[in-house]
Every structure is written in structure tokens, then in C-alpha cells.
Amino acid sequence: MATSQMFIFFSTKILTEPLFMIFIATSILMFACWKKSGRVFNILVAGVLAGLAFLTRYLGWILIFSFVLYFMLDIIRKRGAGIKHLLVLLFGFFLVLSPWMLFNMLAYGNPFGAFLENLVVYSGSSTQSLLQGLYDIFVVAGISGLLSFLGLFVIVKRNVLREHLLLVIVFVISLAVYLVLPHKEPRYLLSFLPLYAMLSGFAISSIPRSNIKNVVKVVVVVISLMSVFSGVINAWNNWDAEMPMLSAISEVKLLTGLDEAILSPSYPYVYYFGDRRCITFCGIPSTADKTECADSADEIISLADEYNISYIITNAFEPSNILLEGTDDRIEKLKSYEMWENPEAISIYRIIR
Predict the structure, then answer these.
(1) Are residues 55 and 119 in the same domain?
(2) How far apart are CA 81 and CA 315, in angstroms?
């Protein structure tokens, strides 16, 4: 898993994926410890870690849903014997979620208000096809994705599905959910990378001890080294490309107060690095209607007045950069930064009132 180029790339980002992977992997590990020892403490910790995974990324609902589905199947098979352990797991899960649920009750009038709003926002965003989802699986997982499906086959063939049922449930549901999601991003798949690694282990362990297994080991090592090299190069190039944007945001941050917003299509950079509220050319990011974006100087000024905006940061590689070309003297360019051999890739504008 550590040699995945996508993992290396996103590990350099201030995003939730690396932390989510720790929680989901350790939750499944504690579940496995409970299966082996039967200690109630282990299943309690598994629930706590599942709660932390959910709070880190709402995709964590897949993990707790898989836990519940596993125990429901177990309860049916054993005629109620697993109810106690399911309740302990859910206690640990909701114990962690309780402050968040209280906040949701106060803010939304619903203990899961923020989660439900997130679903509504992303279900109404851009729609990608099933083929795009399959392509993303190959890009993110690579050879480990193929080995994962082989690992599923090995689990069924060895008749050990019952022992590894949770792992299979989480893997299948995570892929199914991603394929049907209207809004797809490869990093959503990356969140479940530990599952690919676990299932790949089953596939590799099924290869008989022979010269073929030695060849497979060499191939895996070579591919892993190539993946590491590619991941490091991509991460370095991306960091180098981000420096102009970070420089622009740092400069505008010094020119603005905490109560001011910045108009820019680069929402994550402005919000997380600039510590300022970011308004896109289509409005507030979470409710932006891309069919009603500002496309004239008057509309940009109107948007700036509405959200207390004095500065604009544009990116030449974003469509919004075109909006400011040829605008009147109410919008003044202050400075530009070079990126990818474009001397005016990142530009700072000031609104004159």
C-alpha cells in the first residue's frame, strides 16, 4: 500500500484520506482481534475507530454499515448470539459521534443533518459514467486492484469466506457505491486502499512455492519501485506548480481581514491556506449553481459587494480567468505569478470602489 503512487501523491496533501485509511485499517484489525480472542474490549475499540473514520470522511458510513450487515447475518445464522457484540460496537461508534450529533441537532434539527446535506450537495453535482468509475478503479488501484479480485476468488475457493466476510463486504460495497455515485473522484477509492492491500495478500499467498512465485515476487518489487518513483515525481511536480498559488494567497491574506472573503475558483487553497472565506464566481462553493456564474464586470462587482470582497485570485488554467479579460477600470490587476511556463498563470486583482 505504501508504494502506491496515488497514496504517495495524496500523502503530501492536507486531505482526509491518509487519516481515514489509518482508522478504517485499525478498525478492521481490532475486529480481527475480537474474532480471534473474543474480548469485548476489542469490538468496542473497533466501533470507536469506525466512528473516527466516519467523522474523518463521511464515506465511513460504508464501514459501519458493513459491520451492521455482518452482525445481522451472524445473528440470523446463530439465532441471536451476536446481538451483544453488535450493541457494544454501536455503543463505541455513537459514543464518538455524540458531540457531532448534538451539534447537528442544534444546527440542523437532525442528528445527521450535516451528513444528509453533504449527500444532497454531491448527488446534485456533476455526473460521471459507470465506465469512468471502472477507469478510476484501475488508475487508483493498478495491479493491486486486479490482485484484489483474485484475492476474492481465493477466499471463496479456500472456503474461508465466513472468516473474512467483513473484509469482503466492505470491499464490495465500497466499489459498488463508488460506481453508482454521480460525483466521482479517484481519491474516494484511495480511502479504501488498505482493503486492496489485504485482498492482494490473499492472491499472492495462493501462488504455489515454485519458480513462478519467485518471478511474481520480482515483478511485484519492480512495479512497486516504479510506482514509488512515479508517485514521488508527481508529488514534487505538483508541489512546484502549487507554489505560485500559495504565494498569491499569502500576499492577499496580508491585505485582507478575517471578516473579508476572496473571490477565486481555487476554494481549497484560499480556505485552508489563506484562512479566508472563499467565494467562487458561481457563489458559495457548497450551493454554487454553475449555470448562473458571474460573466461580466457588473456581475463580478455585484458578487463582490454581496460577500464583502476586495481581492480576486485567478488561475489561467481555470475557466474563470477569461471573465476578467477586458473588464473596466473597476478591477485592477496587481500582480501575476508564473506557473507551467505561463508568466500570468496566477493573478491578483483588486476591486476599486
Answers:
(1) yes
(2) 59
Query: What number is the average pLDDT over the span 138-144?
Result: 74
Average pLDDT over residues 142-171: 85
Whether the pLDDT of residue 288 is over 50: the answer is: no
How many domains does the structure of the chain reveal? 3
| CA–CA separation, 270 and 253 (whole Å) | 9
Grid cell at residue 262: 476572496
- In this prediction, residue 294 has a pLDDT band, given cuts at 50, 70 and 90, of low
Cell of 321: 480567468
Render pLDDT for 175-209 as a digit per residue (tens, 0 to 9): 898 888 877 777 788 888 888 888 888 887 777 76
Taking the whole predicted model, whether its pTM rises above 0.85 is answered as no
Enter the DSSP assignment of 273.
I
Is 2 inside a domain boundary?
no
Is 347 found in the same domain as 306? yes
pLDDT at 173: 93
What is the side-by-side strand order in the sheet with 277-279?
A: 277-279, 261-263, 309-315, 342-351, 331-339
> Mind giving me the DSSP string for 199-247?
HHHHHHHTS-SSHHHHHHHHHHHHHHHHHHHHHHHHHHHHHHHHHHHHH
My answer on whether 50 and 109 are in the same domain is yes
Per-residue three-class SS string for 234-272: HHHHHHHHHHHHHHHHHHHHHHCCCCCEEECCCHHHHHH
Strands (E), the chain: 261-263, 277-279, 309-315, 331-339, 342-351
Range among 107-121, 163-177, 185-199, 279-293 rated most confident: 163-177
Domain residues for 152?
A: 137-206
Beta-carbon contacts of 264 under 8 Å, excluding residues fewer than 6 positions away, are 270, 278, 279, 280, 312, 313, 314, 315
Closest by Cα among 280, 353, 290 to 321: 280
Whether 48 is covered by a domain: the verdict is yes
In-domain check, residue 219:
no
Nearest to 349 by CA among 304, 306, 319: 304
Q: What's the DSSP call for residue 283?
A: B
